[in-house]
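Protein modeling request. Please complete all fields; requests missing the sequence field cannot be processed.
Requester role: graduate student
Desired output: 3D structure, token encoding
Chains: 1
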Amino acid sequence: MLAGGFGKRLRPLTEKVPKCLVTIQKKPLLDYWINNLSNCNFEGLLINTHYLPEQVRGFVNLHPLKEKIRLVHEEILLGTAGTLRKNIKYFNNEDILLAHADNYCTADFKEFILHHNKRPKKCLITMMTFITDTPESCGIVELDRDGVVQKFYEKDTSPRGNLANGAIYILSKEFLEKYEEDFKAAVDFSLDVIPNLLGKIYTYHTSAKIVDIGTLKTYYQLENQLNFLDS
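Delivered output (231 residues):
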């Protein structure tokens, strides 16, 4: 779980709270992830920290599932691809889920896993996709008729559609076995890894809500939507 960023675009909310602990309906965002993943009986969860790490440690230490969670601190942020490379041995040659903890997501991860297990043999990873209203702020994908990514446009100012990368992936053990060597200089997973895997990325499409709460606008929009639904 990638949770080390500063969340600068969410200031002042993140001046004293790390982005992964910003609350949605009074519940920390990271708690949504842990509880949702617990439905899949995950074996272990690795979370990287950097900004205000003591708060993340405090949250995890009080969580009922703390025994399944491992924190790894980065004095210098390694980037999404760098964090994966640094901790590759933790995963014991098993398929893993890689996700950004600053996204709000209600997708069914059991279904995601089942879909990944049925991927074409040529595909090394499975990407979760969704329909976005703001394609210029997302990574947009084009698929073939088998649901395999053929083209990828990261935050293109002239979007090529609205089918977006949810930045939630299941990575196969076959991919992880070669990752260190094939992507030894990669820093950003979306920019440095995804474009080099075209034709080898299967997709799972969800109609569940996925929201990158990267800005105050999207954060308050989500809060208002959820409060309206509960009213």
